[in-house]
Amino acid sequence: MNEPTAYQLLGAEQGVRELVERFYDYMDTESQAAGVRAMHAQSLRASREKLFLFLCGWLGGPELYVQKYGHPMLRRRHLPFAIGKSERDQWMHCMQKALADMPIGEDLREKLTRAFMATADHMRNQPELGSDDRLPIIRGE
Fold first, then answer.
1. Domains defined along the chain, listed by start
2. How far apart are CA 117 and CA 136, in angstroms?
3. Among candidate residues 30, 141, 38, the one with its CA nearest the CA of residue 94
4. pLDDT at site 141
5. pLDDT given for residue 16 in this prediction
6. Is 141 helix (H, G, I), strand (E, B) or coil?
7. How much is the pLDDT for 138?
8. Maximum CA extent, the chain
9. CB 50 within 8 A of CB 17
10. Residue 76: half-sphere exposure toward Cβ, Cα within 13 Å
């Protein structure tokens, strides 16, 4: 028998919708997410819908985003935005709070947190000075 997908364990469409709603509610109200919130339009309606469509497929459910928009090209779609560790962490702050609200087991919550973190980290396109991501020193002759 096949193992249930994260999509199914989360509650299928209804569960994914709830996660997305909670996520964006936190983004809209948490002061710790002000920087990442400022990257979005005043209305989060379109962002909510796109994340819902994307997560359905990403979590192992129907590929709704692909059906409507084609391949997500996630990193490419985020290149216009300066995303560093701070923005990643703000995004993850909201997602972790949303996941904590969901009626799911701790194993699934931890698995999803790790998967979201890997994806959020992949979206980074800004090096962080003073960290392991320091810009190389270029010396002139």
1. 11-122 (1.10.490.10)
2. 26
3. 30
4. 38
5. 98
6. coil
7. 46
8. 66
9. no
10. 3
Q: What pLDDT, on the 0 to 100 scale, is given for residue 137?
A: 45
Q: Looking at this protein, which amino acid is placed at residue 17?
A: R
Pair of tokens at residue 44: 């989060």
* Residues in the chain where the model's pLDDT stays below 70: 129-141
Residue 96 CB partners (closer than 8 Å, separation 6+): 113
The per-residue pLDDT for 127 is 85
The overall average pLDDT reported for the chain is: 91
Nearest to 89 by CA among 124, 42, 115, 41: 124
Query: Residue 69: what residue type?
Result: Y
User: Per the structure block, which two tokens stand in for 87?
Assistant: 């923005």
C-alpha 104/C-alpha 94 separation (Å) is 17
pLDDT at 140: 47
pLDDT number for residue 129 = 65
> Looking up tokens 């002139």, which residue turns up?
140
Closest CA to 48 of 71, 68, 23, 66: 23
Tell me if 90 sits within 8 A of 31, measured CB to CB.
no
